[in-house]
Amino acid sequence: MKDLKVIFMGSPEFSLPILDKLIENTNVIGVVTAPDAPVGRKKVLTPCPVKKRALEHNIPVISPVKLRLDYEEIINLKPDIIITCAYGQIVPKVILDLPPLGCINIHASLLPKYRGASPIYSAIKNGDKKTGITLMYMAEGLDTGDIIKSEEVIIDDNDNMASLSNKLNILASKMIIEHLPSIINGTNERIRQDEDKASYVGLIKREEEHIDFNDTALNIYNKIRALSPSPYANFIMDDIEYKIVEASISDGDSLDTPGIISFEDKKYFLVSTKDKLIKITKIKPMGKNIMSVADFKNGYHSSLVGKVLK
Questions:
Q1: CATH 3.40.630.30 fits 5-201, yes or no
Q2: Phi, psi of 72 (to 5 degrees)
Q3: 50 vs 87: CA distance, rounded Å
Q4: Which of 79, 165, 264, 290, CA to CA, is 20 to 30 A from 228?
Q5: Where do the domains of the chain lie?
C-alpha cells in the first residue's frame, strides 16, 4: 500500500496513532488539521499534535480556518483516498467527491450511537459498558455514512477519558490498516446505518463540567471519570471553583442534604449525594496546581465538615 496516496485529516492527540500507522504503511501526501491555537496564560500560538507529527515527517500541512471556503490545496494534491479522525470541521461535498476511493472516517463509537463531537465522554458519562470504533464512508450528514466495520471495546469501571481514548485509538490504528486493502479493491462491507437507532452528542459545554450533587453518586462518579484528565468536573465552595481530580464512590449511604461535606479525614472528605457518598481525594483549586486533599487541608486551617458544595 506504499503507493496509496493518502490525505489524513485530524487534529488532537487521539488521532496520532492512526496517522503514525498511515505514515508507516502508505504514502501520506498531506495532512489537513486545525490552525495553530493560543495555549497557556501567555497565549502562545501552538500547533496541534497532528501538525507537529506531520512536520516531523516533512509532510505538507494544510490548516484552513474554514474548510468549506478554503480547499483548493487539497484538490491540487489529488489523493487516492482521504482518511479522517477527529478533525473538527464538516467536510464539504466537493472534497467528499474528490478521491477515487472515497473519504473514510474513523469514529469513536458504535454508530449510529453517539454521532457527533463527544462520543467518548458520552459513553463514560452515561455509564455504558462498551463502546468501540467504527470505520465508515463519509457522507454529507454528520457521521451518517455507510459502515465498513465496527469493533467493540469494554469500558472498565475505572476507565476515564484518557484510558478509554488510549484503548480506542490503538484499536482504530489497527483497524484502518487491516481494512484498507478491502477498501482499495472494493470488497469491503458497506452497511447502511439504522436511523431509528441514531443519537447525537455535541461539544462538551462549560456548564456540563459542573457537578450537581442532587444526582446519584454513580452518575456523579461517571461524570468525573468522563471529564478526567481534562477539563475535569468542578464544584464551588466558599465562592471558589475546585476541579475534582480524583474521587470514588464511598460505601456509606448519604444521610445529609446533597452537597454537604459529611465527613473528613486527613486524606479525603465525603460529600453527600442523592444516595451514596462521594469520596474526594485530589482537587485543583482555581489558579493553583493539582493537590491532594491532605495538602489542601494543611493550608485550609479549619474543618470542612458542614461546608456546602454548589
A1: no
A2: -60, -40
A3: 10
A4: 264
A5: 5-201, 206-300
Block means of pLDDT (10 residues each) for the chain, 310 residues, are 96 96 98 91 89 97 96 97 96 97 98 97 98 97 96 97 97 98 96 97 96 97 97 96 97 90 95 97 96 92 92
Global confidence as pTM: 0.95
Burial class for 66, CB neighbours closer than 10 Å (0-12, 13-18, 19+):
exposed
Spatial distance between the Cα atoms of 222 and 166, rounded to a whole number of angstroms: 18
Radius of gyration of the chain (CA): 22
134-157 residue pLDDT tens = 999 999 999 999 999 999 999 999
DSSP E strands in 57-159: the ranges are 61-62, 81-85, 103-107, 115-116, 130-137, 147-154
**The three grid cell numbers given for residue 53, joined into one nine-digit string:** 507529527
Rounded to the nearest angstrom, the gap between the alpha carbon of residue 55 and the centroid of all alpha carbons in its chain is 23
Question: In angstroms, rounded to a whole number, what is the distance separating the alpha carbons of residues 5 and 77?
Answer: 9
Class of the domain covering 206-300: alpha beta
